[in-house]
Amino acid sequence: MKYRYIIVVLLIVLSFVDASAQRSKQSRVVTPDTAQVVKDYMDSLVVLRRQLDSLHQVNAQLRTEVSDGRYFRLFAPATFYHSGANKQLSLFPQTGDEVTDAIDEAMMKLYMRRPDLVKNNESNLKDVGSLRDDVNTELTQKVDLVDMAAPLPEEPEAVPVAVVIQKPNFWKFKGDGYLQFLQNYVSNNWHKGGESNYSAVAAATLELNYNDKDKVLFENKLEMKLGFQTSSSDTIHKFKTNNDLLRLNSKLGLQAHKHWYYTLQLLAYTQFAKGLKANDPQTYSDFMSPFHLNLGVGMEYKVSAFNNRLTGSLNFLPLSFNFVYVDRDALTSSNGIEGNHHTREEFASQFTADLKWQIADQISWKSRFYANTSYHRSLIEWENQFELKVTKYISANLFLYPRFDDSNNWDEHLGYFQFQEWSSIGLTYSF
Questions:
Q1: Is the dihedral of CA 249, 254, 259, 263 positive or negative?
Q2: Strand 79-80 with 120-121, pairing
Q3: CA torsion, points 405, 407, 410, 413, in degrees to nearest 10?
Q4: Residues 140-198: pLDDT tens digits?
Q5: CA proximity to 244, closest of 231, 230, 228
Q6: What pLDDT, in 10s, does the model give residues 381-424?
Q7: What DSSP assignment string belongs to 90-106?
Q8: Where would I find the beta strands (DSSP E) of 161-237?
Q9: Short-list 211, 131, 133, CA closest to 171
Q10: Measured between alpha carbons, how far is 253 from 298 in angstroms, rounded to an integer?
C-alpha cells in the first residue's frame, strides 16, 4: 500500500512541476505569425501521415476503401481529448484496438510538441453541446467497387467514315383513274319528251417517265377509257359504248437548249369494244378497226408557266409516218382505205399540245390538241376535260371533244366535223 501512496505523491509533484514548466514556457514563447503557424501545423500533419501509413497494414477496413470515423480527431481542429492522457497517466491503462491506441499516441505527441496549436479541449466541447461518443467506434460502410476500366484508345484525328452512295432512280411512275355514273329518269308523260337512261364511264391513265435531269427524257403514257349507256328506246342493243379509247404515247427526247428537246414520238391508239348506234345493227368501229400508228421526229417544248400551274408539252413534228390498219372489211372505206386493202400508209406533218392547267386547288383543265395532215387528208382533235374535286376521292367531270376528220363520210348537217360531250360525278383516285 505504501508504494501506492508514494506513486500518487510523485504523480502530484510531477503534475505541479509540469504545470509550472508549461506556464514558464508559455511566458517565454513569442506568438508566431500566421504563416509560421500554418507551416508548423502542416509539418505536424506530415508526421501524422507517416504514422498513419503504418496503420494501413493493420486496418483491413482501410485497405478495402472503408470510411472510419475514428480518424476524425486527426483532421478536425486541434482539441485536447482525455483518452490519450488517461492512458499515459493511469497505472493500469485500458487499451483499445490498435487504431484507437495509435491515434491517442499521435494526439499526445501533438499535445507535447505543439501545445500552442491546441486551442480547445474535450470539456469545453461537452459544455457547448453533445459530444459524439462513437468517435472511437469503427464505422463501416459497404462500398461496391467496380473493375478498373482500361484507358480509352487514342483515336486518330481523321476517323474513316463508311459512305454509301446510292445510284439515283431517274424513273417515276404515277397515275390516276376514276369511275363515274349518270342516271336520268323521264316519265312517259313528260311535257318535253325524252327517255330514261343510265350511263357509266371508267378511265385510267398510267405514266412511266425517265428523266436524268441532264440530257435524256423518256416519257410513256397509257390512256384507257370505256363508257356504257342504256336507252329504253333502243330495241336492238341492251347497252352501247359512249366513250371508248385505248391510246399509247411514247416520246424519247434529247435536250437541245433549256426547255427544247429533239424528239422521237410514237403514237398508237384504237378502242376496246364495238361502236354502235341506237336501233341500228351496223358496227361503226371495233377493236383494231381502225388502229392508228404514227411515228414522227421533230422538236418538243416543255411548258411551265403561272408558277408551275400550267404544265405540259408542245410537239412540232414536221416529218411523221402514218399507218392505219382496219381489221373489218366493211369498215375499210369509211377509214380512207381503197380497194381490198386493210392498211394505209402515208407521210405527214404533225403537231401535238398536251397541257394541264391547275386553275384552282379544286379545279383543273386537261387539254390535248392533235393535228395531223398528209396534205391529202387532215385529222384534228381537241380533247378538253374539266375536273372539279369535291373531296379527295370524289370528283365531277365535264368532257368536251370537237373533232375534224375528212377521211370519214360527209354529213349533211356537220360535214366532216364531229362533237362529243358528257358530264359525270363519281369516285376518283391518284397515285
A1: negative
A2: parallel
A3: 0
A4: 666 665 666 677 777 667 767 778 887 888 999 999 999 988 777 766 766 556 677 78
A5: 228
A6: 999 999 999 998 999 989 899 999 887 778 888 888 999 888 88
A7: -SS-----HHHHHHHHH
A8: 171-184, 197-211, 216-229
A9: 211
A10: 10
